[in-house]
Design brief:
434 Repressor (Amino-terminal Domain); about 45% helix
């Protein structure tokens, strides 16, 4: 049975892939309005949500969460799919999407459904610094401030570094509790 994804997970998946709602709509064969509705907890057809899930899975995204029948999904989130075993060879690792930085700040912001200016003000950084950190540019002190702020606000970062490839696998975000 296919499981629909919560709005926050859909937003995080789109942020990980750095796609617009229009690009996701085209890829999932739906409308930008349907993508917007699904990302904001508005009522959408189950089939529309599953079209979005299928699109993201096809792009290498893995949705996370824990649930039981009749219960809400907890610890929901999204990440790039990764090898189950970190000790697999480089050829296997190359079949998965990997990125050059470990902390997907843009996806964390999407999970929280916040604007860059809101986050910058809350953390005490400029919008330009938040934008640079979201692009993967690392500045140690602001990086730690922003990461700590997201973690304090319930975001858990996922993923692991691979020395052989110098890349990060399974990078994503989820709710900590």
């Amino acid at each position: 049975m296919r499981t629909p994804a919560p709005a926050d997970s859909l937003r995080a998946a789109r942020a990980l892939l750095k796609l617009s709602q229009r690009e996701v709509a085209a890829g999932a064969r739906t409308t930008p309005r349907s993508v917007s509705a699904a990302e904001t907890d508005e009522t959408v057809f189950l089939e529309t949500n599953l079209q979005l899930v299928d699109f993201f899975v096809g792009q290498g995204i893995e949705f996370m969460g824990e649930t039981a029948i009749g219960k809400e999904v907890v610890r929901a989130g999204a990440r790039f799919a990764a090898p189950r075993d970190r000790d697999v060879g480089v050829p296997v690792k190359r079949s998965f999407q990997a990125i050059d930085f470990a902390v997907p700040f843009r996806a964390a912001r999407a999970l929280l459904h916040r604007e860059q200016a809101e986050v910058a003000q809350a953390v005490g950084l400029t919008v330009a610094v938040v934008q640079n950190l979201e692009r993967g540019k690392k500045s140690p002190e602001p990086h730690e401030l922003l990461r700590s702020w997201y973690e304090t606000n319930g975001v858990e970062f996922t993923g692991w570094a691979d020395i052989a490839t110098g890349r990060f696998y399974g990078v994503g975000v989820r709710w900590a509790t």
